[in-house]
Amino acid sequence: MPLPLINAKARLILAHGAGADCDSPFMTQLAGALAEHHIVVQRFNFPYMQRIIALGSKRPPDKMAVLQSHFTEQIKQTDGSLPIFIGGKSMGGRVASMLDLRDTPEVKAIFAFGYPFHPPGKSQWRTEHFSQLTSPLHILQGERDPFGKKTELTDLSWPKVSVCWLNAADHDFKPTKISGWQQHQVIKAAAAYCNGVIDEILLAGH
Questions:
Q1: Where are the alpha helices (DSSP H) in the chain?
Q2: pTM summary value
Q3: Residue 156: which CATH number?
Q4: How far is the C-alpha of 58 from the C-alpha of 33, rounded, in Å?
């Protein structure tokens, strides 16, 4: 359960990536950085990850329909006392972006932290649904992310998708040494951007 925050202004339901659970160092750092902006982060594990933790053996992710259903349940079971946003790391962000949110108007926007545009080195793009999005999708992407680099996306755009590029960062927001940045700083920058978007949406709603 997320810790209560003084003067909390929003709740972000955050899903993990394919290979690490909701308490991974990345997820923990991101949740802490968002909490500094008074955003309550609600993390959860998909069913396959729950089995990995329980059995101690690796398993592939569940089918997309199962992941979507489980994410939808998290939204339905969430306390609606705060404005709700959803998102996730890599695969978790993709799942969030693929949810049918027409029946969940309480969800204000989606955040993807390192979107897996395509498998590294392959041209199988995972953007078919972008043209049908009913909620805004905000992607925070490392400039050198092998799942979708800045150079690959320069000429691409979708009506409800915006991309914030993170300087010299990879898929896990780890920057190059020459950049002078460290991973925790990139994660904090991503959280600050997320906070700015949430503030704009909340202000527009008043």
A1: 25-35, 47-55, 64-76, 91-97, 150-153, 183-204
A2: 0.96
A3: 3.40.50.1820
A4: 29
Q: Is 155 helix (H, G, I), strand (E, B) or coil?
A: coil
The interaxial angle of helices 183-204 and 25-35, nearest 10 deg, is 50
> How does DSSP assign 23-71, residue by residue?
TSHHHHHHHHHHHTTTEEEEEE--HHHHHHHHH-S--PPPPHHHHHHHH
Does some domain include residue 150?
A: yes
List CB contacts of 187: < 8 A, sequence separation 6 or more: 26, 29, 30, 33, 173
Matching residue, tokens 């394919």: 18
Place of tokens 């329909």: 65
Asked whether residue 4 is assigned to any structural domain, the reply reads no
Judged by DSSP in three states, 175 sits in strand
Helix (H) or strand (E) holding 85: strand 84-89
pLDDT averaged per 10 residues in sequence order, the chain, 206 residues: 71 97 98 97 98 93 98 94 97 97 93 98 96 96 98 94 97 97 98 98 87
